[in-house]
Design goal:
Bound molecules: zinc ion
Mean pLDDT: 82
Structural class: alpha/beta
Order of helices and strands: HHHHEHHEHHEHEHEHE
Radius of gyration: 24 Å
Helix content: 40-55%
CATH class of the largest domain: Alpha Beta
Oligomer: single chain
CATH architecture of the largest domain: 3-Layer(aba) Sandwich
Number of domains: 2
Length: about 300
């Protein structure tokens, strides 16, 4: 059959429509579940006003609304959402407090595993972004301690960077860092440091490789963890030189060097304890250590 001009025109039109469909931007797949992002977006109930654009654009609505943000804190020391026996048992910890962004539930375990064990490094900035609201809230808590005598917070614009001297992280053993190719805690720390223009310092050294912590009892864990870390004296000296030269400029009443220690998960706090003890031991000037973790288990 010979093509009539109408048939020919129709064919061109349908070919054009097909190629236009191919060229149209497709919704990107959610980095967690792999579904097109706009599919579940309408079902999303974002309870968190401070999601970054990157988070909104990388995860689908269902995955976003499944994030168990830890916004209500029951234990002011370790940042747990429920009252906490660990802190009652040992109220004197070498750090000021811990705050975590999320509860470590099944979904968060899966998210961390994708990043940490399956090497999906695209997730690193997302996990870093998830820390931001918690870090800002923690800094706001500190800023409230520097209120004006009338009890009202100073109206002067406060900068997050004024409250911190350095960001550091829990180091992993060399074997693990070679296996994995990265240290998740260092990546999270670097994310915070870049975002707020804070110095990222390597204040701790991991002395040896530890067995998997999850198979151990609480007391085995604590005994083991104690000898895992030591202070990096060269970096600590640099911190003191740097911090002492600027201390008191932003907050004249501040007499301590304030350090942010970052890790992925806070379980019993034995790692945070061991790291903070080492930092304090090597400090020539009093340190105030705050712990920021991605998840509280
Ligand atoms: Zn998803
Ligand atoms: Zn606690």
């Amino acid at each position: 059959m010979k093509d009539s001009p109408q048939n020919w025109l129709q064919r061109i039109q349908s070919a054009f429509t097909a190629s236009a469909q191919l060229l149209a931007p497709r919704p990107a797949a959610c980095l967690l579940c792999g579904k097109p992002q706009n599919e579940a977006r309408s079902a999303a109930n974002y309870n968190h006003a401070k999601l970054t654009t990157r988070l909104r654009q990388s995860l689908c609505g269902a995955c976003l609304s499944a994030i168990p943000w830890l916004t209500r804190i029951a234990c002011l020391k370790c940042g747990r959402g429920i009252p906490c026996e660990d802190c009652i048992r040992s109220p004197h910890r070498p750090f000021v407090c811990n705050r975590s962004a999320v509860h470590y539930n099944q979904a968060m375990r899966a998210m961390l595993a994708l990043y940490k064990y399956r090497g999906n490094e695209q997730l690193a900035p997302l996990l870093g972004d998830m820390l931001l609201p918690t870090f800002e809230a923690m800094t706001a808590e500190i800023s409230r301690r520097f209120s004006t005598p009338s009890g009202r917070r100073s109206k002067a614009k406060w900068r997050i960077a004024d409250y911190w001297d350095a960001v550091t992280y829990v180091p992993v053993s060399e074997e693990r860092s070679i296996d994995r190719g990265f240290n998740q805690a260092e990546q999270l720390a670097s994310h915070i440091a870049q975002r707020y223009r804070l110095p990222l310092m390597h204040l701790l050294i991991r002395s040896r490789h530890s067995e998997k912590q999850s198979f151990k009892t609480r007391s085995e864990r604590m005994r083991d963890t104690k000898s895992l870390f030591s202070g990096n004296s060269a970096e600590l000296r640099m911190l003191h030189t740097y911090a002492l030269s600027s201390l008191g400029r932003a907050q004249p009443s501040r007499k301590v060097i304030r350090v942010l220690l970052i890790d992925d998960i806070f379980t019993t706090g034995s790692t945070a304890d061991a790291c903070s003890e080492q930092l304090n031991r090597h400090a020539e000037h009093p340190l105030e250590i705050y712990v920021l973790t991605w998840a509280r288990s």
